[in-house]
Each structure stands twice: as C-alpha cells, then as structure tokens.
C-alpha cells in the first residue's frame, strides 16, 4: 500500500518541478524581451480602455498581452477585434485557454512572438504596459507603421518626448493616451 502512494507522490513532485522549470524559462523569455509578466490591475486597464473611446469593429493590438485578460475584456465589452502578441508562451497558454473557453476565438487572435516583428498597420488602437526602455524603443515603429488617427495607450510608462492627448490616473499610476 505504501509503495503506490510513494510513487504517486514522486510523480506529483516531478510534474511540479517540470511545471516550475517551464514557468521559469517562460519568465526568462519575458525578461529577455524587455518586460516581465506583471499584469496591470483590472481597474486601471478598464479605465484605459474607456479613455481610448473604443468603437465597435475597431482593431486593437496589445503588445505584450500576457494572459490577455484585458484584451479579452475589451473585445467583449466594446465589440472590437483584438490581436495579442507575447514573447512568453506560458501566459500565452493561459490566454489561449481563456480565449477558447470564453468563446472569443472569432474576436481575439493570439500571436507568439516578438513585438518588434509584428506589423501594426492594421491597428486602430495599440495598448502597451511594458518597461520604459521597451516603450521608447517602439516609438520609431509606431511612427512608421501606425495610420493617422490611431491611438496608443501606454500604462505607467510615457513615450519619451511625445505629448499625450490625455493622461488619466494619478501621479504614481498614470496612463497616457497618444494620437498619431
Ligand atoms: C508588464 S507585462 C504586461 C501584461 C499585460 N499587457 C497587462 O497589461 O497586464 C509585459 C508583457 O510583455 C511581454 N513581453 C516582454 N517583452 C516582449 C517582446 N519583446 N515581445 C513580445 N512580448 C514581450 C512579457 O512576456 C509580458 O507578458
């Protein structure tokens, strides 16, 4: 009787260790990409979407979408179409589960890859919550690829030297909205 219990415990331990290792590798991917996976609070994300005045059928891109919780909310709430991209497959796996189980496959497309490699010309709105360095590194890409009239939402980190059309939140938790 003891033996099978020990085997079961060992199997569980090994599974736990493998999952831990996979999570660790995935976190390294995020950090190497420029920003670890730390989700914005639900309330701030909702304020950000509201401030961007999303219109039905607009196309929104979330660069570094993590588990896509905010993207899925926006697509459902505002009837927009979303594209989420993330370099780290662990949160993206959760994103895929959320999209599939939530019946959002028609509205949300997920891409596993580097932000720098995705073309943004189809976007009406781009949302980012990244570090300062990575946010600034995207300025040229935004200038090159985004169409006139598109909006950029940047949580916490401004686009250095760019003037936001609106800033919401408090001094410690700002969200910047830019217009191209
Ligand atoms: C601070 S989290 C933001 C998560 C989510 N957007 C939110 O607002 O809650 C940053 C995310 O960006 C992803 N990331 C970092 N560098 C990236 C890169 N170069 N390309 C794609 N995703 C990247 C990370 O894996 C992480 O999920």
From TrEMBL:
> What residue intervals traverse the membrane?
6-25
Q: Which domain of life is it from?
A: Bacteria
| Record GO biological process | methylation
Q: Any idea which UniProt keywords this protein has?
A: Membrane, Methyltransferase, S-adenosyl-L-methionine, Transferase, Transmembrane, Transmembrane helix
State one molecular function term (GO): protein-lysine N-methyltransferase activity
| InterPro entries registered for this protein in UniProt | FAM173A/B, SAM-dependent_MTases_sf
What name does this protein carry?
Methyltransferase domain-containing protein
Organism for this UniProt entry: candidate division Kazan bacterium RIFCSPLOWO2_01_FULL_48_13
């Amino acid at each position: 009787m003891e033996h099978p219990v020990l085997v079961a415990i060992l199997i569980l331990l090994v599974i736990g260790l493998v999952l831990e290792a996979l999570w660790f590798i995935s976190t390294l991917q995020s950090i190497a990409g420029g920003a670890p996976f730390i989700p914005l609070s639900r309330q701030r994300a909702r304020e950000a979407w509201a401030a961007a005045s999303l219109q039905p059928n607009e196309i929104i891109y979330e660069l570094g979408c993590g588990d896509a919780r905010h993207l899925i909310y926006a697509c459902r709430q505002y009837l927009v179409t979303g594209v989420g991209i993330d370099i780290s497959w662990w949160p993206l796996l959760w994103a895929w589960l959320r999209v599939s189980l939530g019946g959002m496959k028609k509205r949300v497309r997920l891409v596993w890859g580097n932000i720098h490699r995705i073309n943004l010309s189809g976007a009406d709105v781009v949302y980012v919550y990244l570090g300062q360095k990575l946010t600034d590194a995207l300025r040229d890409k935004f200038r090159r690829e985004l169409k006139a009239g598109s909006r950029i939402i940047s949580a916490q980190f401004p686009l250095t030297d760019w003037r936001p059309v609106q800033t919401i939140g408090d001094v410690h938790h700002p969200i910047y909205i830019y217009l191209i």
